[in-house]
């Protein structure tokens, strides 16, 4: 009989331990939900949900920066936002194929709809830098405007003294643009 009560005590102890573990996990889940609610409330009411006081998380701010601009057209196209210095390569079904930051040229194209007019695999840019995957789509103030990537990978700010039309991309982005934006591809420029 002592042996049976000993086994019963072990089962009771294991059951108590299991219940304690379940209780702990339940507490953790509840606490996580409360933290999440508190964080959301802080963001909604202008609380300090972020270091800059905007109430937006870094992820929300990044998504906002990467969100396709409204009224940027439909169908397959390149969208270039002058204010955000960002490009979107858009598929026929309104899906973002790729989005990336660029360094603007010293002369901006006017907002509007253009088409890719010419392309060149390798040239020397208007700033004297060897570039690749050049996709030209506009002319402004007598300067041809287009996307390109410097062969050395540099992304310097445009010299405001020189009239340049090269919108610089990282080399991988330039390759994606080259493959996407063939002659006649629509380019929408927005502010």
Automatic annotation (TrEMBL):
- The reply on keyword Acyltransferase is no
**Which keywords has UniProt assigned to this entry?**
Signal
Keyword hit for Hydrolase: no
Q: Identify the domain of life.
A: Bacteria
Give the originating organism: Streptomyces nanshensis
Comp. bias regions, Basic and acidic residues = 55-67
Region annotation Disordered: residue ranges? Answer: 36-70
Gene Ontology MF terms in the entry: transferase activity
Tell me the InterPro entries matching this sequence. LD_TPept_cat_dom
Q: What is this protein called?
A: L,D-transpeptidase
> Which first-to-last residue range defines the signal peptide?
1-31
């Amino acid at each position: 009989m002592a042996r049976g009560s000993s086994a019963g005590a072990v089962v009771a102890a294991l059951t108590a331990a299991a219940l304690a573990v379940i209780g702990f996990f339940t507490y953790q889940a509840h606490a996580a939900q409360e933290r999440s609610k508190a964080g959301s409330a802080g963001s909604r009411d202008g609380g300090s949900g972020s270091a800059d006081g905007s109430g937006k998380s870094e992820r929300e701010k990044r998504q906002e920066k990467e969100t396709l601009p409204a009224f940027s057209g439909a169908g397959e196209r390149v969208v270039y936002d002058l204010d955000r210095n960002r490009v979107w390569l858009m598929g026929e079904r309104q899906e973002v194929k790729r989005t990336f930051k660029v360094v603007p040229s010293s002369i901006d194209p006017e907002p509007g709809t253009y088409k890719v007019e010419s392309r060149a695999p390798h040239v020397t840019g208007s700033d004297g830098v060897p570039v690749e995957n050049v996709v030209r789509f506009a002319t402004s103030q007598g300067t041809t405007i287009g996307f390109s990537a410097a062969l050395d990978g540099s992304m310097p700010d445009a010299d405001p003294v020189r009239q340049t039309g090269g919108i610089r991309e990282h080399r991988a982005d330039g390759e994606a643009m080259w493959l996407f934006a063939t002659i006649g591809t629509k380019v929408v420029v927005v502010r």
